[in-house]
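Design review, sub-item: ligand-bound model
Attendees: FS, YL, KQ
YL presented the inputs for the ribulose-5-phosphate complex:
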Amino acid sequence: MALAYDPLFITSDKTSIDVPSTPPSMILTQDELKRIAAYKAVDFVKSGMVLGLGTGSTAKHAVARIGELLRQGKLSNIVGIPTSTKTQEQALSVGIPLSDLDAHPVIDLSIDGADEVDPCLNLVKGRGGSLLREKMIEGASKKFVVIVDESKMVKHIGGSKLALPVEIVPFCWKFTAEKLREVMEGYGCVAKLRLGENGEAFVTDNGNYIVDMYLEKDMGDLRVVSDEILRLPGVVEHGMFLDMASTVIIAGELGVKIKNKHSSGCC
Ligand SMILES: O=C(CO)[C@H](O)[C@H](O)COP(=O)(O)O
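KQ shared the predicted structure:
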């Protein structure tokens, strides 16, 4: 029997979604799934909150929704802390008052997308290039809600064909990229400087470069690998967000699934 898609259908942490033997009657695009996850996360937003505003094609739906609720008078007294200049522009365009971490060192709630999520809610982020500000802001948040479509769920982060991003200073970037490759050699690493649309090095909002680390093997102990990367002079930050997410909202063809950190069985 085909299952109809119901965006309000929410499974609990431990419930797995059964894959129907026939396709669902309503196929949603990846962007529609992202929007559903984003809207569900905005349900956590209350008037008076300081909010970390994420970056990317999923987070932009949350920013748009917060702006809409402010305009409708359903939310008030919100302060947004944007994780990129792009999000800053969007948030201003939809009427969200903005501030920064200096003025608001404690954030009530951050909402952002991710590139990969593992069963323990560890993340890879930064394929959009905003990993440093995202890690600073989301790390300062009492609650960090991650919004993804189901394609982002993986068994092990960093082990997919997509890269683990590392932000590095531009000074002698080849030297740092080579040191990174050496540290990650055991995982079959190819390190590539990220290029922008103009074919030049992609430059982050912080004036840095990004090296994308393509790994053939799963990383072992993520904390050990994280420490090894961060110890390298020239490295600013990497895209592994370990033990940071409080909740992950996953939108799939069969509905929305919410996973909480304390019931993931890992923490
Ligand atoms: O980390 C990020 C940007 O630095 C994004 O959150 C991540 O790349 C997911 O993006 P999208 O929602 O477009 O799939």
